Amino acid sequence: MARGLRDIRRKLKAVKSTRQVTKAMELVAASKMRRAVESAERLRRYAQGAWSILRRIAIAHGELHSFFQERPVEKVLVVLMTSDRGLCGSLNAHIIRASEEYLRKAKEARPGEKTDFLAIGRKGQQFLRRSGQNVVAAFPALSNHPTFRDALPITRFVIDAFQRGTYDHVVFISPRFLSALRQEIDASILLPLSSQALHIQDTASRDNAQDHEEKILEFTFEPSPAEVLNTIVPQLTEVQIYQRVLESAASEHSARMVAMRNASDNASDILDGLTLTYNQTRQAGITSELAELSASSAALGG
């Protein structure tokens, strides 16, 4: 009996320690999430405005810049954004599942297509290594308050590879923050910024309430269309990539906060069950001892 009580006390102590850790991690994740969500939402409206500008230019003057021109798809660069660390629920599993679904559909639609990966985050790198995919570059996850400068190496690699003609399409697979309890996985074409891809992407955005049938006006460029577009189109593309980085960071921290909260609640439930078991075991031990004393007293008195 004493050994059983000692084991239960040991389990109670271990679960209490675990609950302290998960509660602390929940508070840290909540603090990081608030800042990440503020950054993502602050840039989201600007990024949507930039996307609308790109859509208008692509429809009216799609022939003026290489970023707007479709070409035969032979090589694709897939940018897979995951986290470096786990303990964020099923977020990374959903991202990996979305990448597997993309590869399956791409193989069915274009059997001869060659796909390379750019991995952002250690979890994605590990998955791609296990599945035998070709990883041309790897970056750590930018989850601790990323700045625009932090995302520049990624944006420069993607834009330069597309401009050189190394890849015909650039696809991003990354989480999109909707709320603390909900994140969706977005798998969409970033480059080229064709009118079709832009229209699909713009329609998929739930926050964009613009009418897609609105009249597209002609643009007048000064000093010249080539000079203006060569400046603003790469910059607006960099904004789109940075927005995805911020959405990914907000999604990771919110998923981790919820996961740690659930872990803390589960630990509390386990503690309640162990405490009840401990009290019942202890009460049974006391009752047994009292019965033995009563029986001994009755035997001596008899």
Architecture blueprint of SSEs:
Blueprint: H1 2-61, E1 75-81, H2 91-109, E2 114-120, H3 122-130, E3 135-139, H4 148-163, E4 169-179, E5 182-191, H5 195-204, H6 225-301
Parallel strand pairs: 1-2, 1-4, 2-3
Antiparallel strand pairs: 4-5
Features:
five-stranded mixed beta sheet; alpha/beta; Pyruvate Kinase, Chain: A, domain 1; elongated
Annotated CATH homologous superfamily: ATP synthase, F1 complex, gamma subunit
Do you know the CATH topology?
Pyruvate Kinase, Chain: A, domain 1
- General shape: elongated
Q: What is the overall pLDDT average? A: 83
Q: Specify Rg, calculated over alpha carbons.
A: 28 Å
Secondary-structure content class: alpha/beta
Largest beta sheet, briefly? Answer: 5 strands, mixed
Instruction: Write the CATH architecture name.
Output: 3-Layer(aba) Sandwich
Number of strands: 5
Low-confidence stretches: 203-214
**Tally of structural domains:** 1
Which CATH class applies here?
Answer: Alpha Beta
CA-CA gap between termini: 29 Å
* Tally of DSSP helical segments: 6
